[in-house]
Amino acid sequence: MGSPEFAVASLEKVHQLTDLQAVYTQPDKPRGRRGKQLEPTAVKKKALELGLPVHEPKRIRDDEVIEQLRSYEPDAIFVVAYAKLIPKVILDLPKFGCINVHPSLLPRYRGAIPLQASIFNGDTETGVCTFFMDEGYDTGDIIVMRHTHLGEEETFTQLSQRLALVGADVLGETIELLQSGEEVPRLKQPAEAEGGYTKPIKKEHLQVDWTRDSESVRNHIRGLAEVPAAASTLANGDSLKIGLATRAPEEFRGKPGEVLDIIKGRGPVVACGTGAVVLEKVKPAGKGWMDGYSLWNGKRVEKGDLLGAPQRASL
């Protein structure tokens, strides 16, 4: 059970190591401005390539879906970024239970956005674990955990791609443990989530709060890069997506959101609550991604301009 690109490597691993009976994913979603074209999930695309049966229930807890799952008589159900809460009746179906691949070091960052949360908080270590699912939200007993370094310049897109492969390896190790016939490790989690539960990102969360310190602003931008991308507004009110911001030299100071200068070949320097950042990759409204210096050359931003709303919603 899975949907986005992050789950594809795990799907391939399960297909390689087991007798995979079926794949469950989110229904096709409208794409494009008019929403007339339906786009399948990345997992559905790969499953069809592999010749696997694909099911796309709107509600996983419907009786007919449960009976369909029961008919497969599964030894295990593997769940990777499926984005649906699995009810107890399904958790109890498989011989080995339902096993989740989670991209954080549980109990840290339970919930919807563990990858982004690790970057927002400036963590230098992250990881992936598998656990036996229970009725709680990412609270089950841990089976395998893999630690990995989190680079200070690594973006959400880069981390997601990398941890997708780590997750597939961890899932492969978990499957081999299940197949060994020996007792599978079960590490109980504490009741409290370290760092709390992460909540889904909403549109208002994308706005950069320039009153925050420069490291927080930089982490916010790389935690959303390049999809859905952090956002701000230009002095004329036009929207601006920001895909990459880097540290500016320490001497730059100004009002939060103020364009202080340009660094040739890089981009505009924008002041934060403390310190400043350089906008290196941006996407103005109606344009494609470009380097920050091109934004300056196009006269879309000038020294003294003030960017963005003063506050953003709390994540």
Which regions are unreliable across 5 or more consecutive residues at pLDDT < 50? Answer: 310-314
Strand content: 15-25%
Any idea what the radius of gyration is?
A: 22 Å
Which CATH class of the largest domain applies here?
Alpha Beta
Quick one: biggest sheet? 6 strands, antiparallel
In helices, the fraction of residues equals: 25-40%
Straight-line N-to-C gap: 27 Å
Q: What class, by secondary structure content?
A: alpha+beta
On the 0-100 scale, what is the average pLDDT? 93
Give the CA-based shape: elongated
What's the total number of strands?
A: 16
The SSE string, one letter per element, is HEEEHEHEHEEHEEHEHEEEEEEH
Structural domains: how many: 2
Describe the protein in words.
The chain is of the alpha+beta class and 315 residues long. Helices cover 25% and strands 24% of the residues. The protein has 8 helices and 16 strands. The strands form 5 sheets. Strands 11, 12, 13, 14, 15 and 16 form a 6-stranded antiparallel β-sheet that branches. A 4-stranded mixed β-sheet has the order 5-6-8-9. A hairpin with a 5-residue loop joins strand 11 and strand 12 (239-247). The longest helix is centred in the middle third of the chain and has 24 residues, at 156-179. The protein is elongated and about 65 Å long.
